[in-house]
Amino acid sequence: MSADPIMQGIAASHAGIATRLAGGPAWNERRGLALSRLLGRGLPDRRDENWKYLDHAEIAGRSFSPAATAPVTALQLAPVMLPLAAARRVVLVDGACQPGLSAAGAGNGIEIDDLAAIMTRDPALALQMLREPGDDADDRYALLAEAFVSAGVVIRVAANAAPGRSLYLLHVGTGTGPGTNHSRVVIEVGAGATLSLVEHFVTLGNAPTLANLAAELRIDAGATVEHLRIHESGAQAAQLETWVTTLQADSRYRQQFFALGGRLLRSNLDLSLAGRAAAARLSGLFMVDGARQADLYTRVEHHGAVTRTSQEFRGIGSGRGRGAFNGRVVVHPSARGADASQTCRNLLLTPLAEINTRPQLEIHTDDVQCRHGATTGTLDPEQIFYLRSRGLDAVTARALLTVAFCADIVAALPQEALREYVLERVVGQLPDRDVIRSLR
Q1: Are 285 and 257 in contact (CB under 8 A)?
Q2: Which positions ≥6 away from 171 have C-beta within 8 Å?
Q3: d(CA 415, CA 202)
Q4: Which of 239, 243, 238 lies closest to 197 in space, CA to CA?
């Protein structure tokens, strides 16, 4: 066994619950293999290039034993839900699907199933559905989820289906006690189908929990997926997530990402454009204040010819907040005619805030268009001077420029109610929020 105390704790936790997890002998064997691989390699740390900005001590200080959970009622959920009254709702509580709290409905080409139920009634099917994580550092928390997996949700959209209503996937952490919850999410979108997916993370309690999500999104040929992700976990909550998304020929994927809460967030996105003429657009805003941190990593791989990707992220840091955006684009020899762009702009509002940006391009073929750019700085004194020359005081000028910095990211949200909701959360984290609210 590894001498690392964290690895020892993970192994002890696994031994204590292994016989109680769903899936029978087949899944016990697969979990045991995942645990063995993880113990042999360890969790990522600062020596791993794509993890060097993350505060690993914050994670190491958490308990990797299963977190305590508690029943959740619809009354408790009402205040934390997004204004999406017409959406189909799927609720995961501490990683486990809760049909009694969901309002997903049936028909219109969408099938939603509790992963724990699949693992119980048809373990072989569950084995086929869930990918096996790799051994590299970027996949090791997914490997950890594999070792403990027994809960989650599987969502399938039939070929050519157009469900109409958004699908609202609500991740709820009860936060009743320290510990770790693991979950798996699998989403399959059939050829020619469309899906509007809204994903939302909230926490009800204040315990220093750790949530670990391993998720897969498979988009078949000609399908279109709009994916909005909003992180609003509690002040003591830490979230680790690994998304693996694959696009087939002529498919379209749009992700809008907002990191607006939680003590720590590490988000991995592995996006593969496998088919010809697939296209993806990623945008987002991450905000870190107080002692919070958000660490975003995207790996975009162009395999198909004439594939296109666009990435635009912005970060705002205040207090002692720490943020990072690490974006890697790989254009493979088969991806002739690919077009990839990547930008990240960051704004520091206080002297002790820190945001690190690391754009990367790796190109293995000619006849491509690839570009990237990154900036980190403070508010422009000349712009502040200009606004003051028009009669505004310094605080109001600063407030207006800060809101303008992220306004177009928020304005791209598809529904007015969501735009208002997100903008209010963004404003609420700014040092000059009272001034901004007085101007609205």
Answers
A1: yes
A2: 92, 95, 183, 199, 200, 201, 202, 211, 213
A3: 20
A4: 243
Q: Which position has the token pair 């107080």?
A: 290
Helix segments in 18-139, DSSP class H: 24-41, 56-60, 74-77, 115-121, 123-129
Q: Of 241, 274, 307, which residue constitutes the final position of a domain?
A: 274
Q: Which of 274, 301, 331 is the last residue of a domain?
A: 274
Answer yes or no: is pLDDT of 438 > 80: no
Q: Is residue 185 part of a domain?
A: yes
Residue % of the chain over a pLDDT of 70: 99
CA distance 341 to 331: 12
Q: Judge whether 293 lies within some domain.
A: no
Domain interval for residue 102: 5-274
Residue-wise pLDDT tens digits, 218-249: 999 999 999 999 999 999 999 999 999 999 99
CA distance 69 to 211: 12
* Residue 377 token pair: 């700085």
Q: Does residue 280 fall inside a structural domain? A: no
